[in-house]
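Following the same procedure, sequence and fold were stored together, as reproduced here.

>
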Amino acid sequence: MKNNMNTTHNQRNGDGANGTADFDAHENLTATETPTSLRHPDSNGEKTPSGPPPTTGATKKHLPRVLAAIAVAAVAAATGVYYFQNVLPFESTDDAFVEGHVTAIASQVPGRVAQLLVQDNQEVKQGDLLLQIDPRDYEAKLAQAQANLTAARSQLEQANSQFTAAQASAQEARAGLVAVEAHASYAETNLTRLMTIGVSGVSQDQIDAAGTQVRATSADVLVARSKISAADAQVTLAQANIATAEANIGQSEASVREAELNLSYTKVTAPDAGRITRRVVEQGNYVQPGQSLLAIVPKNIWVVANFKETQLTHMRPGQPVTVEVDAYPQFKFKGHVDSIQNGAGARFSLFPPENATGNYIKVVQRVPVKIVLDETPESELALGPGMSVDPKVRVK
């Protein structure tokens, strides 16, 4: 009986130990299970998981690293695509400016400005009147030149008349010479005949009279020839007077044209369409020839971009260009490379570098590139020489 009681007590102690072990195992199991993986007894009394397989702590620990690696790879891929599409095929510089022809307007004649018809930054068309110089002095000079021309033409007419009269006198003198020579020939013949007959047939007085007649007609011939020479001289003088009158006419016509030009110069007009800039003249000012009055900037503009020489490897005329103007960042202008200067800009400066003297330090040079816009910018945009731009040339 006593042995049975001990056996029963040992069994109870053993059951209690097993129960404690089962309880500890259950706590360890539940510490690693998620709420969705609670176990339920099946038909055989065994516990089976009712949810998805449990996620280990190691997987949770490496998940942020995987996501960060994926993000870095995505950013690197996007950067590479952007570089090969938007950076590598292009060459750009911020050392670029708008350039254009600036036409300086100056007076060609002195005078006082009677009218000023333009204001600062006004848009003008070709041929528009800009200012008027007092024309009264030049109108008087033109009238004087025209009067001198009229007098020269009258002198020419007078010279022509004198020439005609001189020619007539010369012809008359030649005709008189013919008559005198005829009389002289007759007198010589008569003298020869009388001398042949002699004193036996004629008187000595007749012979002497015939000799006197010969001498007289010979003198008349000399006088007639002198008259011809004088008439020819008058003809030559008349021809010289004609040439002088014609020269005076040419000089007077030139004076008239000069006076007309000077009168036209009193109206200063626009040689090209554009905007008025740097106006320094005011109405009432007295201006001198060559004095700068104002300037006109035409609408025809282009861009001069100073690229580094290392950027010209693949740059060629005709390549497309996108131009951004600092003043108007909302606009992008299309253009193309027109030409590339043969030589660095420093070589054509006022003091070019002397690389053959002293210590040499290699510096990357810049070469001007002319870029022409494909379309004329809108008139309301104040684009002018010297404004900063950022060109981007597609070289590949």
